[in-house]
Structures are given as structure tokens and as C-alpha cells.
Amino acid sequence: MEAQIDQEMEKLDNLGEDDLATIRKQRMADNRKRKEKTKEWLEKGHGEYTEIQTEKEFFELMKGEERMICHFYRENWPCKVMDKHMAILCKRHIETKFCKINAEKSPFLVDRLKVWMLPTLALIRLQKTVDYVAGFDQLGGKDDFSTEVLEERLAKSEMIDYDWGHHSRAAAAATEGKSIRSGIYTSTGSDEDSDFEN
Q1: Widest Cα–Cα separation across the chain
Q2: Residue 184 half-sphere exposure toward CB, CA atoms < 13 A
């Protein structure tokens, strides 16, 4: 491994002007492609957390999507927690379509996709469900997980583009005492037992 790194460093040290120009051209071409792709995603409604009203709309929305994450929900606290995280992530990761559908109004989909717990995220790649996040067990088992924890879980299923080196340090810093619920209640310092102590 060390010899391989040394070899790469030597190669970088010996780059000529022509090599640098080639690398620069390639980067510019990659940036142009990314901008075009971003424009296409935004035109298709990426960057928004869309609510799907019907099962038919689900199938129409899924067509042509490379990656789609659909939150099966009902009106309860755990699903509202998931909604908050999904609303944040859809803006960070426009490469993936984020949506939600009311599970109680979608019995065919719930049965077909074998949704057995709410909230459930169906992770769909090229019109096939490849994975699920059911409940909060994979997110720490509590409803006060950070958005970064969900982000890493989605990245493990390759549903979002993710820079592991940058994000894991940021996630570690962000999870220290922070979550959707953190900061709501403060202790008064009295001797009374409180259900709201940190």
C-alpha cells in the first residue's frame, strides 16, 4: 500500500505542462456535464420534497429516475421527524428524487413493496426497490438522530453522492449533542426529577 502511494506521489511530482493542461480540460468538461445534469434534475423537480397524492402518480414519478427515495408515512410524530430530515436532504442531494406518500391511502404500494413499519423509506434505483430504512433502528433507535446519520445510511445504499472523508468528520462534529429535537428543553438546575433533562 505504501509503495503504491509513493508511486502516485512520484507521478504527480513529474507532471508536465501538457499533463496539467489535459487535467484542466478534463475537469472543465466534467464541470460542464455536472451543470447540465443539475439543470436536468431541477427541471424534473429534484431539490424539492414532493408529496405524491396517488399510487398512479408514484409510478409516473418513478419513471426515468435513476435514484428515488420515497417516505411511506402517516400523520404521527415519527413520520414528522423523518419529514424534517428528508426536507433537509432533498436540498443537499439534488441528484436523487425525494418524495413521500401517505401509506394509509396507498394499500397496493404498501403491499407490493412490503412496507410493514412507518416511517419507511423505500430506496429505489432504476425503478427497482433496492433497500429500505424501516423505522429508526438503523438510525440509532431513537427519534433524535441527526440528519447526518440518515445521510450516511442513504450513502451506504448508494442513493446519494457522498464524500466520506469530508462528511464523516462533519457528521461526528454535528452529532455531538445536536438533533432535530435538541435544545427544546433546558434544565433549571433544581433537585426535582424532570423528564426533560438532557
Answers
A1: 73
A2: 7
What is the grid cell recorded at 168? 464523516
SS3 content of the chain, % helix, strand, coil (to 5): 50, 15, 35
Per DSSP, helices labelled H in 74-196 are: 77-92, 107-112, 147-156, 164-175
**Cα-based torsion angle of the residue sequence 114, 78, 171, 70 in order, rounded to the nearest 10 degrees:** 40
State pLDDT tens for residues 131-175.
999 999 999 999 999 999 999 999 999 999 987 766 554 455 444
Q: 190: helix, coil or strand?
A: coil
Grid cell for residue 68: 428515488
Report the alpha-carbon distance of residue 165 to residue 115 in Å, rounded. Answer: 33
Mode of pairing for the β-strands spanning 120-125 and 128-134: antiparallel
3-state SS, residue 48: coil
